[in-house]
Amino acid sequence: MTTEFSGDFSDQRLTFKLDNLGEVKYYKKQPTEVDDEAIFIIIKENLMAGLSYGSLEDWSEDSNFVEIDVPENIIASDFFYFLTKEFDQAGYELSVGYEMTISPESINVYSEYLEKILPLLSFFGVKMVKPKKVAMKPRHKYVKSLTDVPFSIDYKGSKATVYWVKRNEFLIKAGANLLETAPLTKAGVIGFAGKFGLRLREEHADQIKNNVLIQDVKLRSVNEVGTFLYFAGTNSWLQLKSPEGKTLHELTVVK
Questions:
Q1: How far apart are CA 236 and CA 27, in angstroms?
Q2: Among 34, 40, 83, 37, CA closest to 64
């Protein structure tokens, strides 16, 4: 497959303008200005070392950066999440640690888009094949007997009572306190977890007043619960605790 492009270059950057496929830029060193809708792949020693959305942490000077500016028919934040899952399956362990729901139609669009730009990305060291992971992530099973157990959360000032009522449904009870401000990255901007948490709060804006839940909220996963309440930043399976002090991880992990 051949894709036509135009572009420009300098001693620090290559720009590929791909018409209806957006733009891909390659930087020899960390760019000083970052668009909050840009997706970055960090390359170190000619291998993919990280993935970032809308911000860049302080990477070492020997890192290079590939910026993906998606076309208008693609939602950048959703495509970033899609990428983390794709690379995670390839063995890179880049999962953001929480869940989003992307429609099958969007997944088809994102898969086709990735397939079209992947040959270009491969020139910069982005490969979809990597040795298998050494350690498996723990799996958790839904336990119906825990449906009525009030799990408590007390993390960074966020306090809540949560019930795991169905396999894909968690209920946060009214009265929960939400962490007021999304944390900033080292670059001084809100990271992906913060943006996702703010999006969840916007979806439930009528149920929140002064960072306190005035109505119960239903979410789809442990990770969404943590992102909604305190913008992630920790393993929420360990933050949900039963009245006896056992974590949700202890009670549901598959051994």
A1: 36
A2: 40
Q: For the chain, percent helix, then strand, then coil, each to nearest 5?
A: 30, 25, 45
pLDDT tens column, 160-194: 999 999 989 999 999 999 999 988 766 677 877 88
**Sole residue written with tokens 């420009």:** 8
Instruction: Reduce the DSSP state of residue 199 to 3 states and report it.
Output: helix
Contact indicator for 152, 241 with CB cutoff of 8 Å: yes
Helix (H) / strand (E) element for 117: namely helix 104-122
- Give the residue among 54, 180, 51 at the shortest CA–CA distance from 114: 51
Nearest 5 degrees, angle CA 202-CA 207-CA 212? 95
Tokens of 246: 């056992």
pLDDT digits (tens, 9 = 90+) for 110-142: 999 999 998 898 888 777 654 444 445 678 899
CB 227 within 8 A of CB 197: yes
CA 48, 54, 56, 57 torsion-angle sign:
negative
Return the closest-CA partner of residue 29 out of 17, 16, 44, 19: 44
Q: What is the pLDDT of residue 133?
A: 46
- Closest to 130 in 3D by CA, of 99, 79, 86: 86
